[in-house]
Write a structure and sequence with these properties.
The longest helix is centred in the last third of the chain and has 16 residues, at 180-195. The protein has helices spanning 59-62, 104-114, 180-195, 206-210, and strands spanning 14-16, 18-22, 39-54, 65-71, 77-84, 87-93, 122-137, 143-156, 161-172, 199-200. The radius of gyration is 18 Å and the shape is globular. Strands 1-6-5-4-3-7-8-9-2-10 form a 10-stranded antiparallel beta sheet. It is of the alpha+beta class. Helices cover 17% and strands 42% of the residues.
Length: 213
């Protein structure tokens, strides 16, 4: 499926526009009250648990695609995340009642994209995240940026290794401005995060870091 198309139970694909940062364990979460025209609301604490899956041959990783089942938070469900020439896009399905089995609609989507047919998916990593969220609202009250403070405990299942880290994420929300205006908004948030002690992340994704990539 191409970005913007729809399929069974998927709704529209959402583009992710976010920036990630590494941060030391004891660094205080910054105060965003000094950003003109923006109001910070929160914090909200969440507990998230995610399981990532791939084939034995790493077909998804080779296609720059991730398959995740997440519990907790406002977006609990099955997610396909894909890096494309137009950016990173995500499709989501509800958790359903099939336990850890990949739902038929998700399998069909992966088959449409990658021709995987009846491929067998197996867990490759499990992540537990203690997340604290702040949401920035503009002068009209629209939620425009979500800032997450994540403390992650991950297990690389195949290598039988555990890794832990802390990171901050700043992500544009659906009501945020698009194009250069959205990037400028993230620039303003980034200045606060860097001043507080953050560093641009050494890894592009949580699953990459969980697997030591």
């Amino acid at each position: 499926m191409l970005p913007g198309q729809t399929g069974e139970m998927t709704g529209s694909a959402q583009q992710e526009i976010e920036r990630k940062y590494d941060v030391d364990d004891q660094t205080p979460f910054p105060d965003f009250s000094g950003l003109p025209g923006l109001t910070a609301r929160g914090p909200l604490a969440l507990e998230l648990r995610a399981e990532y899956l791939d084939t034995a041959e790493n077909a998804l990783a080779r296609a720059r695609t991730a398959l995740r089942r997440r519990e907790g938070g406002h977006d609990a469900g099955w997610h396909i995340k894909a890096d494309t020439p137009l950016g990173r896009f995500e499709n989501q399905w509800p958790l359903g009642d099939a336990g850890g089995e990949v739902p038929a609609a998700v399998r069909a989507e992966l088959d449409t994209r990658l021709g995987l047919g009846a491929a067998r998916f197996e867990p490759i990593a499990r992540l537990d995240t203690a997340r604290t969220i702040m949401v920035l609202h503009d002068a009209e009250g629209r939620a425009v940026v979500e800032i997450a403070d994540d403390r992650v405990s991950a297990r690389d299942i195949r290598a039988d290794l555990c890794r832990g880290w802390r990171e901050w994420e700043a992500e544009l929300l659906p009501d945020a401005p698009t194009g250069p205006a959205g990037e400028q908004l993230l620039d303003r948030v980034e200045a606060v995060l860097l001043a507080a002690g953050a560093r641009p992340s050494a890894s592009a994704s949580k699953i990459g870091r969980a697997l030591g990539r």
